[in-house]
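#lab-general

N.A. 3:47 PM
ok so I finally got the sequence cleaned up, no stray characters, all 311 residues accounted for. can someone with queue access submit it? mine expired

B.Y. 3:52 PM
send it over

N.A. 3:53 PM
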Amino acid sequence: MSEMDSLARLEAYRDALLVAEVVAWMHMLGKLDGAFLTGGRDVDLRPPADTPPDLLTLLQDPWPGQVLARLADAVAGFPKDYVARSSLATFMAKHRKARGGLPGLLRDAHGRGSGTEKPPVQPKTAPSSGCRCLHPHGADPSQKDRAYIARATGWEEAPPLTPEDLQALRRDLYPRLVALLGELKERLTTGQPVDWDRWRAAFLQGVMPVFRRAVADTRRPYNDVTLLDQTVATVATFKAALAQVLLQGRWQEPHRYRYRWRFLRVGLDTAAWLRQGGSVVFMSLQYPSTDFIYESLKTVAGLDLNDYRGQ
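B.Y. 4:20 PM
back already:
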């Protein structure tokens, strides 16, 4: 397939690829539930308990799956029937446990996003999966049921993040999601065109500040990864994997076929903590003044922001 043919195919299925991006953005919405901070079991596999009915309907309706199922026209062996019945809530529920199908591919992307963003821990000091808010060298009783957002520079924000903090964030986010997901569903299911530039800008404007204030993991030292950090990595990986499937024209089950990746991480030797491995993505999310980094990448490599993150 020539480069022009590849671009034409990606453009033809743009709606499906960008809906996949929305799926990945929403797959850890449950981590905004206050119970996540206190060790609630499998809280991240479902919408927060106080999700309003109109938003819950949008999360449980299979409209995203119906759009994603269109990929079957170009991808041999694509699991169309199952995907067509899948909702945003389906992907939430299966993102840690699915082996096959599109939820399995999301699980693979989720794991790679987690592995990319979370720092390595020595086996002897690694926290167990069933215990939260651990000191790097063992349990710290004073930190029980307390979650802090840590920064790569080595400090934790005080006071700790509380369920009430997450509740306030959710209340700000819910109306935006109802309006934006409702609009997207209406347009995609009735054949109307979507102004993706405008829609994505509004969507990210609502989601990113909320995810930046939440944690992806409550255990130390993993608490230096915000929900935004891990979600961005998962979104890019999932969308790129699906684009690869589309360009190859055949479906390959993620539990049988090993998707291979090359990750580009750019570090700048401009401060002490950067010399310890700071990344461009982290900097750009935390410090708006470093947008010049992306401009430099565009000049040198001919990439735009979405290309860099998605490929």
